[in-house]
Amino acid sequence: xxxxxxxxxxxxxxxxxxxxxxxxxxxxxxxxxxxxxxxxxxxxxxxxxxxxxxxxxxxxxxxxxxxxxxxxxxxxxxxxxxxxxxxxxxxxxxxxxxxxxxxxxxxxxxxxxxxxxxxxxxxxxxxxxxxxxxxxxxxxxxxxxxxxxxxxxxxxxxxxxxxxxxxxxxxxxxxxxxxxxxxxxxxxxxxxxxxxxxxxxxxxxxxxxxxxxxxxxxxxxxxxxxxxxxxxxxxxxxxxxxxxxxxxxxxxxxxxxxxxxxxxxxxxxxxxxxxxxxxxxxxxxxxxxxxxxxxxxxxxxxxxxxxxxxxxxxxxxxxxxxxxxxxxxxxxxxxxxxxxxxxxxxxxxxxxxxxxxxxxxxxxxxxxxxxxxxxxxxxxxxxxxxxxxxxxxxxxxxxxxxxxxxxxxxxxxxxxxxxxxxxxxxxxxxxxxxxxxxxxxxxxxxxxxxxxxxxxxxxxxxxxxxxxxxxxxxxxxxxxxxxxxxxxxxxxxxxxxxxxxxxxxxxxxxxxxxxxxxxxxxxxxxxxxxxxxxxxxxxxxxxxxxxxxxxxxxxxxxxxxxxxxxxxxxxxxxxxxxxxxxxxxxxxxxxxxxxxxxxxxxxxxxxxxxxxxxxxxxxxxxxxxxxxxxxxxxxxxxxxxxxxxxxxxxxxxxxxxxxxxxxxxxxxxxxxxxxxxxxxxxxxxxxxxxxxxxxxxxxxxxxxxxxxxxxxxxxxxxxxxxxxxxxxxxxxxxxxxxxxxxxxxxxxxxxxxxxxxxxxxx
Length: 762
Fold this sequence. Notes:
By secondary structure, the chain is an alpha+beta fold. It has six domains: 4-83, Orthogonal Bundle (Arc Repressor Mutant, subunit A); 86-155, CATH 2.40.50.140; 160-226, CATH 2.40.50.700; 248-422 and 434-462, no CATH class; 468-602, no CATH class; 639-759, CATH 2.40.50.140. It is built from 19 helices and 33 strands. It starts with a helix and ends with a helix.
């Protein structure tokens, strides 16, 4: 290899002038890499960047780069490319591919997200587990987010992709459903089975793509014609890696369980079959995992029992049923179906607390005095007999209206006690978030014929309050049962306090609407509750409510008892839904272990199970949202000519997001369709502003829209703005294109093709 001395034909030591020249050149190279520290370069790319063409000069640059690497100023990746080393460090995490331009790597250790340009993902896809070479941001940068480059893919999220197949005479390709997969997959002609053009299929990736070359795969399952209800629901499940069938061995294991409860088992338990007991659930529920018992005691106190299906009796650790339940970790509730965690014989049969049947339960029983204070509590296995099954609507009817139904005084007293608990909870710092939910009315083919907001009334809150009570007291009981360290290991449902940075951003946003939200950790919950009370019924309610929820940390499972911020509980578990949540099964097993006098369980394997359950919960939640979005788009596709009232829920450089009030469907008014003016995004004030007319569109504005286009494949709704608060219908329906010169110093968002390129399409 030639040296600098050889290249420059130096036969002696370089002169001071020559050293100065080399030093300056070296500094220029380093500055180049520092200014472009978001990416790596090959030596050829470096030569092109500096317009170097002759061989000797290229060798000089290459030698200087080698020196900078030796000095740990630059680093070389596995592919031989070079990048700036700004205190680089390696992090393991999961890829969140936000858009076609960049992704974030979410560290496993909970550190700051790492920004990665798509070109530096090195073919990693959304959800993949990777090692990223990260670097701390330089002092020159305004934000403190580290940036990096993927250097190794440790684990693919999945080798299976779901999407629509495009069939041509010579080859085919898959267009993935996932909005976070941005490349098609090539399918050889002989690898498509019997799939037809525009079918929904599941493809196994046989070779991941490289620069300039598409990924390659083969069809492993044809789901059906795109747009059909069953096809789309199955494709959503497949997209998120959620199974919808149980393996044969699991079904056989469930079928082999005896239906009859042995008398020997009943003798081991507290028999509460003679106590008034009932369930309150959604009208279409099939799995009843909780029941309430109620009786007045001779001393005048009230005994309330919270009885939970004893899944752990039937699902033994390490069994086929247990392995499958852990793998799934949660039931998945799509719009038109439930994908259960347990086979139907267990979820809807043996474990379900159906009326007029003896059932095995795990119970939390509380004795309350006249002041609704808990004076005694008991935890253990029981046998119950539910006397009646209520739908929420039926229970609400007894609360609101007089009737000769014998359950009226019972339901009303429970409602009174629940309200007392609820009031106490908020006084002690619980945050009052009521998130908007929707329900659909479907025809026999699964098509939505109606969509309505889901309204929570006293009957819902009654059940919620007693479930919260049981979850809280179980966690406290386990923690306090052993007073010395190490404490009993438990599966907690934890919720950390909001991130201070996110809280500050939200506080600034709320201030623009005239509301004060404190960032003082000691008073955050009180401040949030005051905000929720003040915005109720106002135009900005939904916007601020949604952003407030996003400001909060995500609840998760852990063996670390850090408390639940949102509920203001120092200890909280999930105990009340073992039919549909695996952590509840874990809680039941641990509780019984400690009731039997067991020593603290090993923490490490339980923490792994907690992490898995949290991850599966998120996947299920994403799938549920996807099914809701699909049905919303499908419903709105049937109402294209209609004008709706809506509210602006977001502004971006490419358009305005509007939520339609009566359906809770959200769509996009694209910037290119606002033809009355050219609009700039004012990020700091969460609005867009017209260049000429000064018209402002901001969060919370009431507008009128109609459906312009719907795309079921992408689950998107394009809206057209036809009016706003002033009632000037048709003001924005003008499709004329106007040329305009940009004012000096101002940026006009371009129209037409150039605009689409710069701002992107949603």
